[in-house]
Every structure is written in structure tokens, then in C-alpha cells.
Amino acid sequence: MAASLMNPFQQFTSTAQQQPSQQQQPVATSSSTTANTTTFWQQSNAAIATAINPSSPSSMWKSLGGGASSSSSNNASGKHKRVVPYTGPIANLESNWDPWLHHAANNNNDNGSNSINTTYLIVMANQSCIVPGGVESVLKWRKLHKQNGGGGKGSMDDLTMNLDSTMSLDDGGDATTLFGGEYDSANTIGNNGVNNEGSSGGNKKFGKRFKSGLKKAQASLAHSVTSIAIKADGGKNPDWVCASLHYLGGRNGDVVNRGMSSAIGSGGGAISDVCLCKTEWIPLPPPTSFGGGDLQQEEGKQLSFAVPLCVPDLSFLESAAAAASSGGGGDIAADNGIVLTVRLYLRSGATLLKAAAIKKEYCIGESSVMYSQLGSSGKDDVSGGQYRTMNLQFTNGMLADPSSFTYNSNPDSPPMLNLMTLPRIKYNPSCRIGWSLTDPTPMPPSSAAALRWLNMFQLPLDQGYAYPMGTTASGAAGAVILANECARESTVTLPIATACAKLFSNAAMQSQQRASMIAAQSRRREAVRSYAIPPELDINRANAIVDMALKDGCMEVNMGVVAFVVTGDKSIGGIHNLTSGAERVPSVRMSVSFQRHDSIFEEGIITGSVPLLDQSPTHPNEAMKARFCPRIMSGVPEKDGFELLHGVPGTKPNGKYVGNVRFEVENTSYANVNDNLIVPSAQSAPIEGLLELEPYLEQATAHEGKKVPVLVPAIDANTGKRTGTFVLVLQVRALLNGASSSQTSDTLPPASLGLVSVVGLDTLMEDLALAPSLDYDPPSSTSSQQLPSATAVEMRRRQVATMGTFLTPRYLQNQADGVRSNVTSALCDRYDKYYNSVISGISPDVAIEDDSHVELFERRSPRPFRPSNSRSDELLAGIGFNVHCQGLSIDVLQNGAVTPAAVHYSVTHGAPADHAAGFGFQGVEENPDLGAEASSGARGGLRRLEMKRVEYAKELEDSISGLIRSVGEHFKMRAQVASARQQAGVKMSRHIPPGVPAIAHYRSKAIECAQRLNNLTWNIAARRANCFSQALGIAVTSYLASLSDGSHASKGYASIWQRHGYLVTFEGLLSAVGKELGMIEDASIAVQMLRKVNIVLVSDDVNTSSNNGESQRVPVAHSPFVNWVHLACITNGSHSKTQYRLEIGLNPPYYQNRVPEPLKNGAAVRLFPVLFQMGVDIRQWGVNAGRNVSSQIKDKSKGGGLSTSESFGDAQNIPGINEGVGGLINDGDDDDGDEVGMADNEIGFQLNVDGFRKLNAYAHSVNPTVAGSAAASSAPPIFDSSEQIQMQNLPPHPLLVPLSESIKASAGKMEHSVLDHAAASCQKLGGGSTIFCKSGKDRTGMQVTFKEAQFIQRFIDRKDAVSSEEIFAKATTLRIYGNRVPICEKNAGEAMYAFNPLQAQFMPAMLKPPPITTQWKKPET
Known about the structure:
This protein is α+β, with helices and mostly antiparallel strands and about 1400 residues long. The protein is about 35% helix and about 15% strand. The strands form six sheets. An eleven-stranded mixed β-sheet has the order 13-14-25-26-33-27-32-28-31-30-29, sandwiched between helices. It has a seven-stranded mixed barrel with strand order 15-17-16-19-22-23-24. A hairpin with a 2-residue loop joins β20 (about 670-675) and β21.
């Protein structure tokens, strides 16, 4: 294979099996490995990093051999592990090869290209290999063979005859537990990898005799037990067969053996048997009559293994053999080359042996093949290349013995292996089938660049599967398909998250700046409160506040109330005959308030008692004192930051506006004083006085530092008649001779560029025009005044505008300095770290934290791959976690040619939700000013929070309506005395005193509702930013994967995307209860927001980016053709109409040659996302049943019935069911102990109906059902009601009728067919598909493998309706041997699906995991 297309380290992902160092013995591995043990994933990366950095060659041995020396039951056995690509019981995952072999091949490559070539061996065996009687016949043959003394063609060497099989997968592990009793746990020491010469003389001979006798005794016992078990089974269960590939030291020369020994880390010791790989176990079919013909003609009468054998690159051994040959050493490998051995193994399927520790695997035949015969066919890649076939007869074992029953049954067709050899591709060549635009480049050969690559990505996962196809579409027979499954990390997730972080951090800074300025304006506007001086305040502190207020453009008012002097009728409050000479001077209650010129509501200043006199006092003693600093306003809204009340502007000759001080004394006669019940009489009326402060501005400088007496007329509030005088002393100060400060208000940053607007969220306050407008731009006052007639909305705005502010200065300050500052800091920090991480993959000058020593699933640095258990990490909240582009490409192998045929893509990921923010109550800790009452009630995910926000907006609107109504009633009541006041020459006040109960209630309620609504809106905006950032990276990965598939372009989908949008279906597998309900709610809004995104493909030689062009671009590291991304926000009127423009810069040659014409020249493709959701686990079953899950299980365990028609098997037969189920009820994922919380059994159905409506509109738009209409002439599809005033009532599209029926049947049920039909419909419409659960590994793994199995079977059968049995069988193979198990290990550090048998019982049949892949843990007590 050409070096330009192959990665030099292509044999590895990150699952290489741990091997012992030269000094260490092998270590037992199991699922209970301690957390601090270095994982196999990072061991593989560490091995590669060491191989490309030879300056520290010993570090590889240390990193791979260390960390596991704590325990090993077979340390004393002297046997080293075989080179098995993937540790664990489940599989022969050939994505990784042993790091030692890689290191050796890389350092001994003669061609200097650093490329490593691996080969697939597709194994089939003719029907003569089907042993009649299975293991029972093998045992009889072995017994007969020993009695006859062996010899002949079928003679087996000691290794092959050894009952201790060399096929066990896990040295030292408990295979019974791991394999569910299907594999041989007794043969864990049968590797015989290295012979250690540690003894000598008689002791050595005695040891050999002892071991030989013990071995014979064990073999005899095993033979007897196996025979009994087979007879008891009576043939009910088939036996099992598999093939394996071995390197045998006895069949290779000493030089080559030493090379292999060093490669596997055994220190150069003698090599006996190294098991390189194996196929899956398949059931042994019953023997059939022989009809003659060869293997390809006897379809259905052969053994076909789906999992190919994978031959590692052993070119380093060929180099050693060539060197030995040239040196004339006489080594057999110098003349013959490297010899490999292919074997067939058989094991019994008897029931009694499934859990027995003595079950055995028997080698029934082996054949040798030269390594040189298995090499590359000379083509650069599989697709479009060639393959070789070879037939191998058995040279050893029962199948090679002419006297065997099998051989004699068909002498014309001896047992034979048919091998198909072809290159195994780790990295699909660019622009070929199976490759995606989001794939990273193969690791570069440069050491420095390769290290940057390894620091950015984990190596890809891949696995091939071979299936006989039967007759092809052309009628030819004998074709085989190779389905190559590959899961790769996406190169665009981190750059897009970085672009989102940039956009949202800028928007958050805009919002914070606006909030800070509004908070400052509020302090100026609310100067009476902000600069009020409590009487008890220290004089120095008080003076400091006053100085600050003066510099801020305020006026200091230092006022003292001396007395209230009554004139005329000396009767007030029931006190008669006042005399100034009385020994005891009576007093009255007085309240002092301030009337601002921008609000109708007065603000209280002080309340107290003052003397009530009938003549002016001779000594002005101040009975009440007040010191405050009101704002000096100019009457210009742009300068003041707020508008004056209607009718006020122009009333002050000096153009300066301060306000009035109002004094009020209650003039109340009391009656009906019984049982402490006091009722004011109807004739009572307050006495009030008004002091305008503006006239004293001119005197502020002249009288500075002096108190001057002031007499304020006191009048009857009803009649306007003067009843007395308020005697005051007044001191006023202001800077610049009473002029306002030269400091003017800065222009507020537009709210349309703030975070709330950028995430497309209306504040729900726009129509009310509540001040201050923190997150929206209020309508222009000039434009509204020019309207010929005010609308009801405008009239309401004017009314609300007179009522002052509804966000208190304390709340605004907390928002600016606390809540919004925290969000802004987090987003800015996120952008900095994301960007540095991206640049570190490109430039050697930028370094980030080295976390290579940290377990992969515990890493928290920004990377394209984010492990699922990092959900609670706030820094990573913008990156979609566990995102993989999983492709399945199909090649047809026939007549020596490899023909690319089809490809299937799915993007798998965790739920795009704000896990870091949680799903509990929102905003309590961040906003203590709100109080518990104002903060409670808002919990859950975005969907629920936004519904709660609508409720808050309705409460606010009701409070405002009540306030307006109460104000109107107050002024209506005062209108009754307006004429009397006018006759007395007294103006009617346009202000409302603070003591009106109804007004005070509604105003307080309105302020509380406004602050609660504003706070929740901000929290939702921040949450939207995080969820959208995740969802966008996922959707773009799907779009680019579809764009990479040439078949989409050839079918004309590009023009459909350009006109109608790119359809992307999100298939959710979450349960609508507890935290997962919140995840559904977050995901539904995040997916909905994707509709705002327009994607534009740009050639990198054209600068069409706006907003500072290249400076806004985020580079994409290690992508062959995607150079950068740029995200911009386009505001258009209301916030909900916000759009996003995502530009993707492509390599110019790729853009010109590969991008379809409809997508060029700035064409924008709008995303058309739809979400379908169906819970598939035990908790969703509980939600559907409408009862608590635990109680139902307990009822079932006691024999009670179930309240549902769904069957889940016999719970009493599940281990541990009666030991307490509390610890078992979790979500089927890992680490956070999701509690059983709120459930919603309607949300799934509602989301599916909504998704169907959108998909139906898309289908009608793309493929109209009206006769004669064309897709190109149809209108773009309707997404939601905001895109069209009146929705069309479309009938179900013919393509979507099955989906419609499934959704109708899904109400209250676990109906998986909804997802199945949705995915099929999306594929037929040319869209992309993504799959997610909470973590994106377990339930997601079941769904994606089911879809892949469907795809394979439909390709084989060439029809949509295929056998469920065949699909389930293939899905099981994919789940055991495919990419999903290592993805679990990447995320959780354990190569198991996080299901237990109880959870699996409740899952739909098509999603149930194979038992050997799940874990069972006894619940904690």
C-alpha cells in the first residue's frame, strides 16, 4: 500500500492489550481493574508516541508494563500473554494490535515509509469440515488416535494435542463470569508463549515428570466429564466452531523467533505459540448430504465466519529472516519465510458445560500458510482493488486424518479452508467510500506532527465483517460482501464549539456591559434610595456618600421639619383649642415622600411626628430630619437614560429637573372604636404640602453650608383650601452652581447583540415595555409619538412607562456583577481554552496541559472527544460528548475484484443537554435578591423552563394589568375633588402616594414577577448557548458526512438541500423521568434551534466572512480538506427571528472538484432538524405503566400481576431480584446515580407528533404528491408556525404512513418502530441521522448496530422487508465484535455495556444486548 494513503500506525486505536515488560511477568486482567491502572486506550497512544519519539525508548516499556504489577495469579506460571488485539472476553476487535508488534514493525520497516500493512483473512470452510457428532466425535477420534500410536498425515504435535487450548482470550481472568459460561475458563494457562529455562538437572526432570502426570490426570477427568455432559444434552444444543491464526515458534527459525519474542516483550525467550487473532464462534450446523462441487457452488453447506482474521504487519520478521539468509546462518526461515498457522477449534454446546470450569476447546485441524502469501495485492486500498483466494488443506488434526469419519464420508471433497485475503484499511482513503469530511488525517510521519495528532485525537476504531451474498443483482453467484465498520472522532466538534464560545462570549459581554450601565443608570435614577443617608450612619461615611452623589450629578438635600402650624380652624385629628403656651405640645404623624419627574409613584423618605402648633415656633428645633440626594435631570432621554413624565418637559425655565418633596399629615376623625377596631370617618381628608426643589438650585451655591427657613403651604387634599403651614429648614448643595455633572450617560450597547437575543429568545417583556429594558431594545419614543392613533399595545406601553422601574437597583447590580459576570467569565475562559486547544494541534508554539498520564475517561481538557462522564464539567459544556461518526461501508468481493457498493453513516453522541447546570431549581443560588418565593418553581430542562417562563410572563402581565387598573381607580377617585382644588388654585398631583394598598400590592407583585422572569430568561439563554453549541457540532458532522457520500450528490440531493434544507433526524433513546426528562427537554430545544442555522461552503481562497474576516475564523486541526469554520449571528427584528450563518472553509481543489454545483457560490443550506424520542429501558417502562418502577418489580417478584400488556419475562428468575432492587434501578449508563424524579408520560408522544408534522411538511415539499408537480417547483417546507401564519393541514405523505401509524400506536407504549420508521424515512429523503442516549454508548450502541445490521441485510436481500432473525444475528455480532464495546471503554474505562440482566429484560427485543457483553453488580446495601 502506498505510504501516502496509509497511516504508519494504522493498526492501533486505543485498545491495545497490556503486555508485560521485559522484566515483568504477565498480569491478570479483569473488569475490576483499579482506577489508577493505565487504560489500554492510552497505553496504545503512549506506545505510538514512544515509537515516534525514540529519544526515550524505554518509556514505552514503562508505560505499558507499569501500573498493573499489583496482582497476577499466574506470575509464577512462567507463561507470557499471547498477542491478542483487544483485552477482554468479548471479542476479537481487530482495531488494535499489540504495541510491541507495532513498535517492532515501525522500527524495522525497510521501505522507510513508516507504513504498516495489515491483511484481512476471510475464512470459510467447506462442508467436509462439519464434523458429524461434534465434540463427541472428536473425543472418540482422539482416543482412537492415541490407541493406534498416532503417526500418519493426521498426526498432531504435542501442542496441537494438548487439551489445554491455546485459544483462551484472557490470561488469568475469570472467563466464566465474563463470557456467561460460553468460553473455556480452565484454559487460561494454555498459551505456552515462552519456555523459561529456570531449572536444571534432576529437579528439572522430576518437575517434567510431575507435570506430565498431573496433566494426564486432568485430561482424563475432563474427557469423562465432557462425555457425560454431551450424552446428557442429547444433541439439543449445537457445538461451536471458530478459526484462529497462530505464530508457532517450532515452525519458524531461531532468528525470527527471537524477533517475535522481543516484539511481544518476552525478553527474547523461546517462543512456542502466539495466538494472533481469532474469528467469532459460530454454531456447528448439522451435516448434510454431499452433492459435489466446490465451496462456492455449495451455498448454504459451508462454514462462514463473519469476523475475519487479521494478520499483523510482520515485515520486521521478514527483515530478520532476510538478514539471516544473507549471513548464511542456515536458518529455516531464511529459506522458507515466515510460517503462520490457521486452526479450527471446536467446543461443546452442552448445557452442563456452559458454566463448568473444565469445558475445553479442541483443535480439530490446522494448516500452514506463508506470511508472504498473505500480503497486499498491490492496490492502495480495498475499494476498487483486488483480493486473493487460496484453498488450504489441513495438515494436522482430525480433519487431516484420512481415517476420520468426516474424511471418509466425502473422499472427493476433503476438508479444506478457503481464505480470501485483502488489505485491511484503518484510514479510508480520502474521497472514497467510507471516508467522511469530518475524519482526521492519518497520523503524519513527522514525529512532532504525530505527537500533536495524538494529543488531539484518539485513534479510529474499525472492524470488518464478511457475509456470503449469494446471487448478485446481475445473476452471478458466489459474491461475498465485506462490511467495514469504522467509528472516528469528528474534527469539527471542537472548532464549532470554539466558534460558538466566541459568539456567545461576545454576546454575554455585551449583555453584561449593558446590565452594568443600566445598573449605574438605575442608581442615578433611584438616587433617593441609592444615596439616602440613614440618620444613624456615621458622619464620615455619610459625607462620603454625599460627595459621591454630587460628583454623579445629584443635588444634596438636607432638610429638617420643625412643625406644622395650623391656621383658621384649630381642630385637627380630634385635638381642640391649641395654645402655644400649653405645657404639653401635641404632635401629629407626618410622612415625607419624594416625587420624581419620571415616575408617577412617590418614594418615601421619612415618617415621624412633628409638633402641632397654632402659631409659628420661636425656636426652630428640627423634629424630623432627612438627608438625600435626588438626581438633577436635563429632560433629554439620551442624556438622562430615561424619559420624563408626559407634560413635565419644558416646565422648568432653567431646563433642570429635580423633583418635589411632599408632606402629608393625616386629618382623620375616628369612629366606631370597639374591640380595637378603628375605622376612619368618611369626611376625613389628608393635609398635604408640596416643595419644588428646582428653585433652590440657583440658591445652592449662595447658601452652601447654611440652612435657610422654608414655609410650605398646607392644604386640604380634597378642597384645596389652606389649613396651615409646614415649617422647614433646608440646606441644598450642588456642583457647578447647581448644574448637573458634566458626566453624561454612555450609549447603551444594543440588546440585539446580547446573549438573550443571540440565542433566539424573546424576553416576553417587549409588549409591556417595562423599564429598564435589560435584554431588549425598547421602541423609539419618537416613532411611537408620530403614530396618528395609539394602538392598545402602544397605549399600554405609555401607561407602564409612567410607573418607573420594575427591576430594583439591587437586582440589577447582582445581575451585572454576579450572575452575568459569572456566565461571561465562564464563556470567555471557555473560548480561550478551546481556541488554545485547537491551535495546539496546528502550531508547535502553542502548548496545552499534558494530560497523557490521566485515564482517558477522566480527562477534562478540551478535545474533539469528550468522555461521557465529564457531563458535570462546566468548561466542557459547549462540546458534544462522545461524538463519533460511525460509518459502515460495503464492498462486494467477486471474481477477484473489490467493488465499492454502499455506505451508511450515523453520528452517535450523548444527549445535547446542559448537564453541568443540572436539572434542579434554576437561579436560586445566583440571585439571592429574588428570595425563595421568587426563585422556586423553575426546574428541569429547557422545554419545561421555557413553559415556566411563559407562566411567569402571564403572571407579570396580570400584575401589570392589576396595577394599571388600580392606578386608574385612584385617579378616578381623585377626579371627584379636582374641581374643588382647581377653584382653590391648587394643581392636581400626577403622583401617587406610597400608602395606597392596592397599588402597593400590585406594584410589589409586578416587580417580583419582572425580576423572576428576567432571571429565568437569562438562565435559559445561558443554557441554550451550551446546548446549541453541542447540537451544532453534531449536526454539522452529519451534514459533512452526507456531503462526503458521493451517492447523495449523484441522486440530486444537493439541490434538495439547497432549496429545502438538509434534513437531519435526531433519534433519542432517553427515558422521560428524572434527569433524563430534563435531557429530553434540553435536546428538544437545542434541536429546534438548529433550524436557525444556514451553512455556507466557502473555498479557502475566497474571503467572504463578515465581522473582521479571517480574525473570526477558527481553524480545524488535522483535517485534510476542512480548513476553518466561522459562525456569525444575523438579527432580524425580534429575537426569535435570529439566524446563524456558519461558513466552512474548504480546501480549494476539493471545493472545485468535489462540492456539488448547487452548494457553491455562497449557496446557503438551512438545517431542517427533526427529533424523535422513544425511551427503551426499564425506567421508561415504569413511566408508561404509570406506577413507581420499584414497586412494580417488587409486586412481580411476589407473583403480582403487571399493569401493562408488555411482557418482560420472569423477574423471579433474575439473580438478585429478591435482594432489593434499589441499586438496580438506574438509567443503564454510568456514573451519576440518576434519581427517580418527575416523570412525563406525554412528552415523548408530543415530540414525536411534532417531529412527524415537520417531517411530513418536508416530504410534501421535496416530493409533492400532487400529480404533475415537480420537486424543484414546490415551496420550501414549513418548520413551525413562525414560518407561516397559518399552517397547512397536510395529509400523511405516502412515504411516512408507516411512521404515522407507529406514532399513533405509541401513546403510553415503548414503540421502537417509531425510531425505525423515522430513520428509514429520513434515509429515503436524503437526510442524515444521529443517535443519542444519556452517554451515547450503551443504548446508542444497541440502536446504531441494529440500524447497521438492517442496512447489511437489506443490501444482501436487495429489499426493505428482511428477516428479523437475520438482523438480530448480525446486530449481535456487531455488538460483540464491533466498535461499540471499545467506545464504552473510552468513556467509562470498562469494556462492557452498562446494562444488567434486569434492565435488558425490559428493552425491546431488537435492542437487547448480548448477555456476555453486559455487567451484573449486586446492589449495594
